Amino acid sequence: MTIVPDARDAPAILAALQPEPSMDPSLEPSPGLSVEPLSVEPLSVKPLSVEPSSGPSTVPLPLPIPMPARLGPPKMPLATRFGTAFGAVYRGQLARSKVGRIPLLFVASFQSIGILVLLRGILDVDNTTAAGQVVAGSTVLVVAFVALNLLAQRFGALRAAGALDYYLTLPIPPAAVVLGTAASYATFAAPGTVITALLGALLYNLPITGLWLLLPVVVLSGVCLAGLGAVVGLLAPRPELATIAGQLGMSIVLFLGVIPADRLPEIGRVARDVLPSSYAVDALAAAFQPGVDWSKVVVDLAVCAAVGIAALAVAAVTLRRVGTS
Amino acid sequence: MGDVLSYAVRGLTRRHGVGGHSVLANDRIDLDVRQGEVFGVLGPNGAGKTTLVRQLMGLLRPDAGTITMFGRDVRAAPDLPARLAGYLGQDDLALAELPVATAVATTARMRGVSRAAVREVRDDILDELGLTAVADRPLARLSGGQRRLACVATALVGDRPVLVLDEPTTGLDPIARRAVWGALQRRRDTTGTTVVLITHNVLEAESVLDRVAVLESGRVIACDTPGQLKASVSGDVRLDLAWRHEPPADDPTVAMLAGLATTNGRRWTVRLDPATAREALGRLTTGAALAALDDFSLATPSLEDVYLTLGGASRDLERT
């Protein structure tokens, strides 16, 4: 109840004020933290409008409506299934400024195509083993660019802004967030892997009959590197560090993937064996050889899949841990 | 039917930082939030409101104390808040580049709304909050208020039994604010939705909250209905006076008020019991001081008065 009249109207207003504001002592609540019900009848909440209130109380407000008669404990909503959550994250991420992703497609593949062209002048084309590896390494690099570099950046930024709360307060598996985000980036990068592989095969005179292997290689290395990229981004204390770490990871994939294994120094070979993307490179490189050793390809892909699942699990745990300190 | 507690909080304590620089953000907080009430957390910046609701959502682990939702311990079932409650946080980077309709629809899907129903659910909430016209625009390209409103839509979609909202109406224009208040009350009234909302807006607290907890430096300094709180702290009313020029100092009423007033230039604020205030105003408006009096207002206590009377020190509560 606020009165802001002209001072000359005071007597009339004072007369109108006679009924005192409700200062009924029976309304005196218990001191301290009162958690007692308002009245004996539960949930009979007093209409707000009868309370004296200050401020511009002329603002029209929705009238309080009586409470519903029946209120049992609510039905417990189910957690959302992985597939549904993945689909929703994927669709949402895909919708993020679509226009900005077209340059991404070019950047991701130009880098790899540039390396292919550069090495074409140096490498002995008749050495199909080395050539196959260069092409496979460049192709996996496209995946690494997206999965390691961009995903680390994205999760680093989300963490820094405190925006992980959005995902963590939805009833969805955290792995669906990592994979859904990675898949949306991958959608724009996938054509780049096909272009790189085809162009590489053309440049280095390699057969393309085994190129269907590109699909499992891209998917499995994508899961693997996306998991790692997400972990890097989530653990980085600052978003700039997440970006740098992601780029560093991509450079490692580049050097160890593109340079043929037999030309690496001892320490490089050890590092190559530790790096999960090497197995993807090897599996794809095998596809360019005249006689494919299928047992080796299956083993390489199995390693990728195993590391991928582990990386994803670690990413999921990290997402929850970092987001709920 | 007994009281069903959506939240029962006991001894909740959370400290930020370590060592000498640590801050006790929540200090032994006890709260009961009943099912089907709009429960407010009012307090100035830095009072520990966000720390409290982030713990309610399982985003922060308490150092001590317990939180139960509908009788179940949140620590034993960490997925409970995400399944039972829709949450509106302070940052929306995760959604910023999404068109409003997509943000709402994908959030609904993640809350288990079926593919068949999602379109209708999405259109309904956009219509309810007046966002239909901007449905195709990314959040980042909206005005601050519309952007916040779109985030509110994502928190409400999917009909959770509980809503935990961190300043849902900050930055909204009065019409949008009213739309949000209406949407919250509609859910409470039709489905018994429990709403926990943070506010530092006194008008909001007085208009929409069934009960309010007043937070100051991590402690709950009061918790009751807005009306009870106002009645409890003081029977005093607030008399605001604005003077055209210096009032006559020899006038006894002026002298009496001058001794009690907090002054801000020629604006005086005096807290008095209603009878004294009426008498004083009567004498002022009929005596010699009237010539100097420019404007006045006489008001019953607001929640801001409650806050100040209870020992709240900060003055950054909003009034409009």
Q: What distinguishing features does this structure have?
A:
heterodimer, A: 325 residues, mainly alpha, 62% helix, elongated, disordered N terminus, B: 320 residues, alpha/beta, Alpha-Beta Plaits, 2 domains, four-stranded antiparallel sheet, 11 helices
The chain-level structural class of chain A is: mainly alpha
Helix content of chain B: 25-40%
Name given to the CATH architecture of the largest domain in chain B: 3-Layer(aba) Sandwich
Strand content of chain A: under 5%
Strand content of chain B: 25-35%
Quick description:
The complex is a heterodimer of chains A (325) and B (320). Chain A is mainly α and 325 residues long.
Please describe the topology of this protein.
The complex is a heterodimer of chains A (325) and B (320).
Chain A: E1 2-3, H1 10-16, H2 82-95, H3 101-120, H4 128-161, H5 164-168, H6 174-203, H7 214-235, H8 239-258, H9 266-274, H10 276-287, H11 294-323
Helix pairs in contact in A: 2-6, 3-4, 3-6, 4-6, 4-7, 4-8, 4-10, 6-7, 6-11, 7-8, 7-10, 7-11, 10-11
Chain B: E1 5-16, E2 23-34, E3 38-42, H1 49-56, E4 64-69, E5 72-73, H2 80-84, E6 85-88, H3 100-110, H4 115-128, H5 144-156, E7 162-166, H6 174-191, E8 194-199, H7 202-208, E9 211-216, E10 219-224, H8 226-233, E11 237-243, H9 252-260, E12 262-264, E13 267-272, H10 274-286, E14 293-299, H11 303-309
Helix pairs in contact in B: 3-4, 3-5, 8-11
